[in-house]
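note to self: the first set is below, dont mix up w the second
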Amino acid sequence: MRLGIDLGGTKIELIALDENGTTLLRRRVPTPTGDYVGILNVIAGLVRLAEGELGRGGTVGVGSPGTISTRTGLLKNSNTTVMNGKPLLRDLAEKLGRPVRLENDANCFALSEAVDGAAAGAHAVFGVIVGTGVGGGVVIDKQVLTGRNRIAGEWGHNPLPWATESELPGAPCYCGKLGCVETFLSGAGLARDYHSRSGKQLPAHEIALAADAGDKGAQASLNVYQDRLARSLAVVINVVDPDVIVLGGGLSNMMQLYMGLSALVEVYAFSDEIDTRIMRAVHGDSSGVRGAAWLWSS
């Protein structure tokens, strides 16, 4: 049995999978805000609950925002900032009394979709998360490519490509820089663009609904969002050239994004034609936690 943990900023989710990927159990609880020890205790409690209920032990994989530093062994780059600088992998292994595998949550998402999701059977997969933040992961032949510095796939912290004068210098990012892709393609980025056009405050999913209802400002914001997404994905294709790009996260549910997206990416990418498939995630918001469980597939 494989247990996966998705460690999010607002919720912690556990899934138990059998050897075929069938879900045996799922549980979700709120993340203790600003409480590192509380986070460790919640994860341990979920593992104990699952193993007790199912009557057997399992491997444990964890998907976390951020990644483990190769230099210090401590977590870095997490937007759940209470975990930064902490020995998360070591503490979890000690707490659970067994080896634990931990990867960035976007890597877990990409792995899930590469194993048995939208990109099943593909050689090279780029998994995209667009939601509260913007993340990415690269999977080659069902193996996560972490990179020398364990930051492979972090497209969200590059500058927005081919930025216009009106887009510069860009909004501040939590990483300390200005104008990162994340500041434009996150939910907050879409909401900020819509507010600048309409003077109204709406969350991203309501902007999509407003666009469908004929709101011109919402339609304009979604058009600009799609163009920014296309520019950013074109750079990914120029560097990685994956067979499939899978979109996940809350904003991936806006179906307006997919209409004409491939053609727009082709305008920006460095090739005479682009046949990279751009697909919506099959497993939805379960993909990250499933991918964490699949960290023990080899």
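second set (the one i keep forgetting abt)
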Amino acid sequence: MALAVANPPALAVDGLTVGYGAGIPVLRDVSLAVRPGEVVALLGPNGAGKTTLLLAVAGQLAPSSGAVRVFGERVSPRRARHLPRLGVAAVPDNRGLFAQLSVRDNLRLVHPKRATVASVLSAFPALEPLLDRRCGLLSGGEQQMLALAKAFLFRPRLLVIDEMSHGLAPLIADRLLGLVRELAREQGTAVLLVEQHVRLALAIADRAYVLSLGRVALSGDAGALAADPAALRAAYLG
């Protein structure tokens, strides 16, 4: 009988092979881990399989082999609805906001208490004067800030972020990613950050994995990878 593993990773992807329907797998034998309090960057060119991996982590795709586990619990399409109970929150690439609702009401969908909603404004003070503005009227940076604030209100144990810097000015992306780093450090949140902006991601990550052609082409300490651009270029080129 297998023994229970003490203090399992927040997210463990073990030998994952997965694709769509009966077609050729998009990911082949992919393994990675994210531990509490750690920011892990998932990098790679378009078409590398990053979105497919996120769908498997969310329980929307069933592996043909291997497994995805969140805090030791195996993830599958049948159990995907249990992920919020395990403390999993996501900031999707489309931000997941309701354009016709105000900023305040978008936040209250996560937590209705006024005091709780007000507490997140200390981390996102730029949202305070926007509370009564319709979300659809916000700039891209303001919308991304709101999406991240909603995730913070959830007080996640595992936060998955898809393309945080997409469409944002570097200074805004830098600030938001800094808040993600603080969340991991201060609350012990595990963060999986899927990002196209390599420099920004490696600046706040502890470790990183580079996907290429559906496999892990490179992994290691984020600082070491940032210091070896030649290895990064080779991994991106497959």
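remember for set 2: The beta strands are 11-18, 27-34, 39-43, 65-70, 73-74, 88-91, 158-162, 190-194, 207-212, 215-221.
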